[in-house]
Amino acid sequence: MTANTERAALRSQRLNQVTHAPHAELDALVKSHAPFETRENFARFVVAQYLFQNELKALYTDPKLIAIFPDLAERCRADAARLDLADLDTAVPADFPGELQNPSLGAALAWLFVSEGSKLGAAFLIKRAAALELSDSFGARHLGEPAGGRAEGWKSFTRTLDSLELSPEEETAAEQGAVAAFERFTQLLKHAYATAPKAELA
Fold this sequence. Notes:
Blueprint lengths: L2 H6 L2 H8 L1 H13 L6 H22 L2 H6 L3 H4 L2 H10 L17 H25 L20 H14 L4 H27 L3 H4 L1
Helix pairs in contact: 2-10, 3-10, 4-7, 4-8, 4-10, 8-9, 8-10
């Protein structure tokens, strides 16, 4: 194993480390909105999920990224989130300004890393959604287990991610991109709950 390969094998760990603080902040924000207390609260959470996944659709369908991750298009959850909104009688939101534009390879990989990593946490979220009579076939589709399983899907993604050779500049872009992805979802979550119909906030 070369020194470059050894360094690359730590990429997913480094991205986890640099996003620890924004990840913790996001978790606290999610909890503060109590998304699993009512379907109305959960619907706002899905609004944020849809906005985030829909913004990333361009990455999940990018031929250059699919060349790296052949199953990438199938991993996208934007359509599942849209169906969840319909199940929850919630309108599909308009795009929110500030979406990711033409990222470098390092940044694109990092945003996908954050999106794919969230599928692990979704295993716990969908269990809580069951209390609202929601499931991977109604209302909480975007939290459902991916084909092949969550663990294997994540291992497959990180194996490929960690095997790539990136320049120092792209490594930096990846670390900055991972933080930016968490900050963007935090922004979208705040927007989703701020725009909730008044009846839903009662």
